[in-house]
Amino acid sequence: MKECKHSFIVAVVIFHLFQHTKGLDCSDPTCENEWKSKCNTAGKYWNGVNCVSCPTGYYCQGDGERIGCPKGKYNDQIDQSTDTCQDCKAGTFGNDFGKSSCVTCPAGSYTDQTGQSDCTQCEAGYMCSGGTRTQCAKGTYSVAGMSSCTQCPTGQFNDAAGSSSCTDCPEGTKCVSGIKATCPIGTFSAGATDACTPCSGGTYNTASGQKSCTPCEAGNKCSGGTKSTCPAGTFAKASAETCTTCPPGTYTTSTGSGTCDDCPEGNACTATGVVECVTGEYAPAGSARCFTCPEGSYTDTKGAGSCKACPAGSKCTSTTTTTCSAGTYSTENSTTCSTCPEGTYSDKQGSSTCTECPEGSKCTGGAKTVCTAGEYAPAKSSTCDTCPSGTYTDSQGSATCAICPKGHKCTGGSKTACGSDEFAPAGSYTCYTCQNGSYPNAEGEGCDVCPVGHACLNSKKSMCSAGYFAQSGSLTCLKCPKGSYSSLSGSGSCDLCPVGSECGVEGTTTPTKCTPGSSSPVKGAVSCGQCPAGQYTGATGAATCQQCPAGSKCPAAGTTTPITCDKGE
Question: Of 143, 147, 170, 193, which has the fewest Cβ atoms less than 10 A away?
């Protein structure tokens, strides 16, 4: 024992000097127990070399010993002096002594109680993971010892939790993720599938849980497995997926139609109804719309299947016919009445052609007008032309113009007689004057030399007056020279003043007889000479003077009466 005490002292010294070095090797059990007794601090124990902290999984009561936690318990703290071992939690286990922690149950096993030293194999219908057992949900299953539930294969199901197997999906249902669901309306299944198949286009069903679909009846559409009656304006044949709008020109006014009716003549058809064409429109059978009558045709009633041709002599809108007025015309199928071409006319309504303009008239704007005097027009004329210079017409409606007659001038289609001092040959457009010394002849077509006893100046013929004379071709009449006279108009020469007379002035028309006491013994006397003294004449117009008779005296010249001599003379 002393030796041991000595050793103890040495050990203590060494312990204090070398706390962290290797302790004494005390292989002697007595020495060991002695050392343990010296390791009497709670929470410490003698590890055979040193007095050290009580490790996890143990507790140390201060007697140098350590006491391990039993199976199914653990302690995760050091320096524990009392039994603080805790039961392993559910899902874990401790299969040995002195555990500082519990182990989670292996996959496929579990514990559902605390303080377990072993785990239980997972039963079929359950999954065990992390030491916990969970019942397989609907749609999953498991065999014994599984850590997870397996989803039912495609097309299988189970409808109870905790199943160890799955069942094939029945007809009319689908099984997705192990869950069975009834196929809804519009779908079907033949069983053992994870999807309901939609009814194909043109088929349907009206209840859920069906194993097949029904073909769609005519007049209905079947889409998405649902049947719908076709509305008015549409149709469908059997097994149709859609309702088809009635084609243009067809219609149906009822629902559920398998076909559409053709549109009747004179009507336009929308898909849902018939609309009668108004006046001015037409529609053949099977038309989708009414058409306006083509130009040159019309309808004057509703519901026409065709348009009427516009009759000749009329013009037509799509709804009316109008008779062409006088001066216009139209052929069949016309939209307008055309004015007659130049040179033609129509003098009545409703003409289909125009008439050729007759001679002597002009036709323009469809109207006929008779040419006035002075104008002319051949057939088919659109104007009346003024007669050319030198021609004329003095009546209306002339086709030609006449040559202007001699003695006339013709201008502007009119005939005018030339003046008395003018002349004009046939076809003249002006009247001419003759050269001085000539005058227009009676026919008026030329000039004649001015005749004796006349003067012609500026085409005017003037008869010479008494006391004047003119030879042929004279321009003027000349006065008779002194000693001559002319007592008649139109004289070509003058007469010598007769014996017993005097013509003392030019242009004498009547000779002046010599007065008593004078005489003119020769022709052409300009003046009468006085009887010389010793002679006398008591008569007028004496050619000579008489000798004063015996017993008388004629003392002075110009004695008209002899004076009886006095006695003695």
Answer: 143
